[in-house]
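Consider the tokenized backbone below.
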């Protein structure tokens, strides 16, 4: 298992809008790094995941205490194949809703372990850019490299999230307004967007 920290912020990308990107045939990392707010829709279709990347397990832990804060495992492909495909939402599995306690906002470092499988194509330069917002304010942009993945493989990687220090006023607002904290996760192969997942977050300690 590889353990990786988020890459540096690097040079600032030129500002982009979701509407601009929607007109592009190919969306690259610099495009999403220029977004100033969370997207309202997905920037690519599930069919663009021609590499058949499938995230099967996800775990979040506090790096200081080792406490597991969230864990989910997707059913095996054989079980999912039993479902009637006509009833499946094409965006199913692309959105996650997280529910944490207020204490989560005071954590300094969190490890996110992902397990994923790939299809019969080799994957070069697999990269994820994840951008977190509260309302229209960018809280943090994370940038991780998965590297090369061999065909038909199962892979496990832990990414280390270094959280920014938030003001007490901002923490209070994020607790009082659940699910107004949102994120976009963009996945690239050879600098081309192939997957886009979304999430929102509550820190009120309840549903």
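A designed sequence for it:
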């Amino acid at each position: 298992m590889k353990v990786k920290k988020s890459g540096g912020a690097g040079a600032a990308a030129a500002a982009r809008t979701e509407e601009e990107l929607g007109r592009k045939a190919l969306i690259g990392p610099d495009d999403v790094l220029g977004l100033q707010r969370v997207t309202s829709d997905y920037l690519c279709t599930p069919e663009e995941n021609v590499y058949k990347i499938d995230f099967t397990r996800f775990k979040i832990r506090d790096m200081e205490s080792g406490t597991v804060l969230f864990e989910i495992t997707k059913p095996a492909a054989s079980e999912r194949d039993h479902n009637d495909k006509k009833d499946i939402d094409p965006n199913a599995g692309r959105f996650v809703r997280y529910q944490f306690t207020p204490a989560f906002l005071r954590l300094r470092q969190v490890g996110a372990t992902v397990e994923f499988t790939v299809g019969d194509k080799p994957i070069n330069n697999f990269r994820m850019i994840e951008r977190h917002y509260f309302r229209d304010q960018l809280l943090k942009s994370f940038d991780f490299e998965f590297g090369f993945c061999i065909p038909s493989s199962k892979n496990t990687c832990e990414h280390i999230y270094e959280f920014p220090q938030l003001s007490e006023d901002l923490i209070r607002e994020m607790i009082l307004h659940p699910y107004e904290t949102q994120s976009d996760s963009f996945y690239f192969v050879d600098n081309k967007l192939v997957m886009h997942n979304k999430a929102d977050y509550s820190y009120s300690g309840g549903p």
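The mean pLDDT is 90.
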